[in-house]
Amino acid sequence: MTVAALLLAAGQSRRFGAEDKLLADLNGAPLVIHAARALSGVDLRLAVVSAQPVADLLRAEGFATLMIPPGPQSASIMAGVAELQRLGATRIVIALGDMALLLPDDIRALLALPPDRPGSAWLEDAPSPPAIFPASWFPRLMGLTGDRGAGALLRDLDAASRLAIPARRLWDVDTPQALSDLAKNH
Fold first, then answer.
1. What distance in Å separates the CA atoms of residue 94 and residue 123, rounded to the nearest whole number?
2. Would you place residue 23 in the very low, low, confident or very high pLDDT band (cuts 50, 70, 90)?
3. Is the dihedral of CA 9, 124, 120, 37 positive or negative?
4. Average model confidence (pLDDT) across the chain
5. Is domain 3-185 annotated with CATH 3.90.550.10?
6. How far apart are CA 186 and CA 16, in angstroms?
7. pLDDT of residue 147
8. Which H or E run contains 78?
9. DSSP string of 147-171?
10. 57/50 Cα distance (integer angstroms)
């Protein structure tokens, strides 16, 4: 079984303003580096990116990168899953580049879920990234459209496939205020 990590880092960051939120500083490191380091325990790591500076940072962290134009999350998922499938992945963990408080332990717990079905963090009665998918679900991921992730595919997960991660660690940064709040509380 070849487990891969897919870091989605090609969004448009419209709510953040002119600055690329993934490069914004959080306690001395770019936001995306914090998210990337949570995936450090996975050998095959791919980041789908839309900015060269982000790609350069992630390559230095051991990620392969795939450059695509900024666009909807479904485009990033489709491109990343296709590339990881080509590289022989049989299971993919999907994480977001703006979720800076995830820990490697959170990813290890996700990897410990049953390998033959999807699993996800669970927040407020709904699925949340990060999530994990077996190869049998890759076609469903490739069929996603719009600026939504895989949440709609995960709504009916049974309790054994739902991972309890503290809500604080599932915080994603969409605005400068969210980054400021995160920095104050981290």
1. 16
2. confident
3. positive
4. 90
5. yes
6. 19
7. 80
8. helix 73-86
9. S--SHHHHTT--GGGEE---GGGG-
10. 13
Question: Is the pTM above the cut of 0.90?
Answer: yes
Domain boundaries, the chain: 3-185
Contact 37, 29 (CB under 8 A): no
For residues 129-141, give the mean pLDDT.
Answer: 97
Residue 101 is which amino acid? L
Query: Rounded to a whole number, what is the distance in angstroms from the first to the last CA of the chain?
Result: 35
d(Cα 165, Cα 30) in Å, to the nearest integer? 23
Q: Which of 130, 128, 124 is nearest to 39 (CA)?
A: 130
Nearest to 132 by CA among 158, 105, 162, 104: 162
Task: State the pLDDT at residue 125.
Answer: 86
For residue 95, which of 36, 44, 53 has the smallest C-alpha distance? 36
135 token code pair: 């190869």
Tell me the two tokens of residue 41: 């325990």
How far apart, in whole angstroms, are the C-alpha atoms of residue 2 and residue 174? 32
Strands 91-96 and 126-134: antiparallel
Rg (CA), the chain: 15
